[in-house]
Design goal:
Keywords: ATP-binding, Cell inner membrane, Cell membrane, Kinase, Membrane, Nucleotide-binding, Phosphoprotein, Transferase, Transmembrane, Transmembrane helix. By secondary structure, this protein is of the alpha/beta class. It contains 18 helices and 16 strands. It has 4 domains: about 70 residues; about 150 residues, Heat Shock Protein 90, CATH 3.30.565; about 170 residues, 3-Layer(aba) Sandwich (Rossmann fold); about 90 residues, Four Helix Bundle (Hemerythrin (Met), subunit A) (Up-down Bundle). It is globular, with a radius of gyration of 26 Å.
């Protein structure tokens, strides 16, 4: 473990020490080429820039490979438009193909113009690598990129009229530091396709190659892609996953045609978003849910809300920084909207959150009564409908039996909508499996900070269903952030994983 840590520090130091001076060389070369009028000098400077860019790509490839090899790379699923991304990539490669006298064709299916969920940064990295390879090994003819949506997968095929390869080489090309005989004299370490395969596996996709020597190759990428669709009858947006639908990125329309309150939600936890939106929708209150900062800002620009509920601990931006950003922004609504902190932290009291500028605080897991009680306390939801909802929820909670693994607590606010209840439970299972996988990887990597972060994220929902034994284990792990990862902590993480698996198994039986 010490050796791995030392190797990682050395790799980061080396890549930093390379990247900083390379950036300076590239910057000054670019500046000089803009200032000089002498063609020969400009030719020399352009060669300097090209060589520097090549060195920088080698450094970046080494760092990417190192992170992927140690399972340090992460994915960040957000909403995006695949057609727009693919068109941007297509346009960026036109100068390269034109310089080699190659034709570049792009055929994108119309359905990819809609909004989907995946990691666009990783997709761009994969497709850029595949197109770079196609340009590198194609001396004449054309390169064609086609994209379609098929069986809940983004399918991208990149075909070239290059050298092609023998059948025996089709698997070898994905191995690290592998260069085929036809690659002699070409730039690179032989890491590009190895990085591609690891990134594809990270996205739970596949990549295949079909090639004929002397005629060219076709690389076909298949990656899960989750659509964010709009229901024709209600206008409700929802995310469709492998197992069904969830309102993780949704606008929950109220039962009444004229809602008295509009709530904006942001959280990186899809289940928590779904659950909170269901609580509000069940009470006839409209809500818009976001998982990313840009979605939140777009919502504030285009719509009007009475209150914002924000998770405090998110990977991209924490709740405190988000509040500062909103108050300092040039969006009038962002400067004044009441913001309620939603947190699983037990080390801060509600008064402390108010000192930071929050309108209130909700501790996860919270009930519908606690949610509306907080809205009422701040004068945000002072309507007779909301007050009666609080009273009704308190009556239900007072009469609810105390039972372990109470999965009905997750779907209590889906009303008489079986599809909504099914969606919530499917989201619960999907997210729980993803979190369990993160916890397993963190334990395998002896990464105590990551173990603590994942534990913190899982506590609220397991508390809600009454998984007291698991919650106790997770709280201990959460409190060990910043400490060395010991054998005892590994055992505790493994016990937690076993308990999580039991809960998933019991939930499946309950269905």
């Amino acid at each position: 473990e010490d050796l791995l840590a030392t190797r990682e520090k050395m790799m980061l130091a080396i890549t930093h020490d390379f990247k900083a001076p390379l950036g300076s060389i590239m910057g000054y070369a670019d500046l000089l080429s803009r200032l000089t009028v002498d063609e020969r000098q400009r030719f020399y400077l352009d060669n300097m820039k090209t060589s520097s860019e090549h060195l920088l790509k080698l450094v970046v490839d080494l760092l990417d490979f190192h992170r992927l090899d140690l399972h340090k790379a992460e994915i960040n699923r957000v909403t995006f438009h695949p057609a727009r991304l693919l068109e941007e990539i297509h346009v960026s490669f036109e100068p390269l193909t034109s310089a080699k006298g190659l034709e570049l064709h792009c055929d994108i299916a119309p359905e990819l113009e809609s909004t989907y969920i995946c990691d666009p940064l990783r997709l761009r990295q994969i497709i850029n690598n595949l197109l770079s390879n196609a340009v590198k090994f194609t001396d004449e003819g054309s390169i064609t990129m086609t994209a379609r949506y098929e069986e809940r997968r983004l399918v991208v095929a990149i075909a070239d009229t290059g050298k092609g390869m023998e059948p025996a080489d089709r698997e070898r090309i994905f191995q690290e530091f592998t260069r085929l005989p036809g690659a002699q004299g070409k730039e690179g370490f032989g890491l590009g396709l190895s990085i591609v395969r690891m990134l594809v596996q990270l996205l739970e996709g596949t990549i295949d190659v079909d090639s004929v020597p002397g005629k060219g190759s076709t690389f076909t990428l298949r990656v899960p892609l989750f659509p964010v669709q709009v229901s024709e009858d209600t206008g409700e947006k929802y995310q469709e996953t492998e197992t069904g639908t969830s309102s993780a990125l949704s606008e929950s329309m109220p039962a009444s045609s004229q809602p008295s309150l509009r709530v904006l939600l942001i959280d990186d936890d899809r289940i928590q978003l779904t659950l909170t939106a269901a609580m509000l929708q069940h009470s006839g209150i409209a809500s818009v849910s976001c998982m990313q900062l840009d979605e939140l800002l777009d919502a504030l620009r285009s719509d009007t809300f009475d209150v914002l509920l924000t998770d405090v601990q998110m990977p991209a931006i924490n709740g405190f920084d988000l509040l500062k950003l909103l108050r300092a922004s040039n969006l009038p609504q962002a400067q004044t909207i009441p913001v309620i902190a939603v947190t699983a932290r037990s080390d801060m009291k509600p008064e402390e959150f108010k000192e930071y500028g929050f309108a209130g605080c909700l501790h996860k897991p919270f009930t519908v009564a606690e949610l509306f009680r907080e809205l009422n306390a701040e004068g945000i939801g002072q309507t007779s409908a909301v007050r009666s909802e609080v009273a009704a929820a308190e009556t239900v909670e007072a009469s609810s039996p105390d039972a372990p693994y109470d999965f009905s607590a997750l779907t209590a606010f889906s009303g008489d909508d079986p599809e909504a209840a099914k969606s919530i439970m499917e989201s619960f299972v999907t997210e729980t499996r993803l979190n369990a996988e993160r916890l397993q990887k963190a334990a395998d990597a002896a990464d105590m900070d990551e173990v603590a972060a994942v534990s913190h994220k899982m506590i609220p929902l397991f508390t809600l269903i009454g998984a007291t034994e698991l919650v106790a284990e997770l709280k201990i792990l959460e409190g060990l952030r910043g400490t060395p990862f010991t054998a005892g902590q590994r055992q505790r993480a493994l016990r937690s994983l076993a308990l999580i698996e039991d809960i998933i198994r019991l939930q499946a039986r309950a269905d």
